[in-house]
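We modelled the chain as a single entity of 412 amino acids. Its sequence is:
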Amino acid sequence: MIYLPISLVCGVIGVGKLLELLRGFKDYLLVITLSSFAGTVAFAAMSPVVWHALGAMSGIPALGSFIAYLSIFGFAALHHILVLMWGRDNGAIAVSRLSGRIRTLGFFYALNAVGMTVFFFHASTGPASPSPWSFDVECADIPGILAFLCLYACGCLFAQWDSARECWKCADFLVTNASPSVETVRGLRWLSIGNMFIGLSFVPKAVGFLAAAAGHHELDILDTASPLIGSFGALFNQVGYLGTVFGTWARERSDLRALRPLWDLVVPENADHLAQPGAALFGVRFHLFRRVIEILDALVNLRPWMVPETAERVRAAARKQGLSEEESDATATAAMVLDAVSRKQRNESPRQTPLVQLLPPVEPTRERERLVRVARALHAPVVRLATAAAQAPGNGFHTVGRSRLPGSNGPA
């Protein structure tokens, strides 16, 4: 009876995806929705209650097995196409090449499904009341059912094996192109391993029903080994999915905490209506998104008090210390922000026309990464050294009191 609750969960997920699809069409969301309903049908059809009811109403005892096996094959095919779409979205597969592959795979999978249907209904369906758990070994001696099972096993094995290969290729592509998404790469590796295990699970199943077709039922135990191997694959897949989600959440929470010193430094102290810093466990992405926007707005407001000499002095010192270009930019920006806040606190007159291009343009997706580097550079040794060397009046660099920079033990 455990199959019915699992089927219900898959159905609820499928309905949720369908509602999301109706709000805005996306091709990968359509594939996910269809695969959710394929899982729903497969689990429901293999439930003994539904399986026997389908046989009784239709007069075809093993109709539930046909529906379940066809749904499992459909799920594997849709998962294969979804993996290719991931490759497209990550740049590993060209859009034009993907369209051709999907058409070819769609034709192959449709032909395989038609063949399964024709062979099943052309054959006798075996004993009057076969068990849903042993349908393949009990009915494998029927030629039509044997052909049905062979098409099923070969189709699923190909879909899972090629999915594993594409996941690994996509991960290699992200690594080669220096993708910052470590969680995505790691998740794709786990998914590749999981798909290989699921694909391998069809091998003992095929050996079992082929041996049964030849009259050797002593190998029927292999039919039990197949779900066991598949369960390992499902476990690896869940690690790939959930591990990526958890890793992303942990990195976002770490960035949220890392941005706090910069937020405290540049955002006005009386801005109680803004996203107050805190160790949030829920809604991390929302708070992080707001904090980035608030920091960027505050930096724009600070531009009239910024002077380019500050940034150039610190950038030159950073380069002498062997820091990378990104690290040099971050330390230069941090020093210039500290100087601007100090000038504003001392009520210096702002420039009528800001002369500083604070941050060079980058892709919006990398804005958070850059601000995190700036926030961590507030306490960088090169900034501290530049601060110490720039204490003389008129040098264009001033320090900020520790009240504006939480966690510091002195001037930043």
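As a brief sanity check on the tokenised model: Residues 390-412 have pLDDT under 50 and may be disordered. Residues 7 and 30 are 19 Å apart (CA to CA).
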